[in-house]
Design goal:
Layout: H1 18-73, H2 77-82
């Protein structure tokens, strides 16, 4: 059995110690957590933008329906706007 020698790194073939593993993986874990948090924030922001687009789309749809109904009540409106006489 090889005993650890203070002041010298372990040989290359020795299994890494638990302290070495945690020191190696913790910074990577924190970086992954930060990236994940940024991704979640971006997804939530996109969701808010999609909700706004749906709201504006519904508003335009209602306005289109109102315009269509008003046009049906007044035939010949296009010719009137263009200054043409109905045929």
């Amino acid at each position: 059995m090889i005993l650890p020698n203070p002041g010298h790194p372990p040989p290359l073939w020795a299994p890494p110690s638990p302290a070495y593993k945690s020191a190696y993986f913790l910074p990577n874990l924190f970086a992954v957590c930060q990236i994940l948090q940024q991704s979640v924030d971006a997804i939530l922001e996109r969701g808010e933008k999609l909700e706004d687009l749906v709201m504006h789309s519904n508003k335009l749809s209602m306005q289109t329906k109102m315009m269509y109904k008003s046009v049906q009540k007044k035939p010949g409106w296009l010719e009137e706007c263009l200054g043409c006489s109905p045929v």
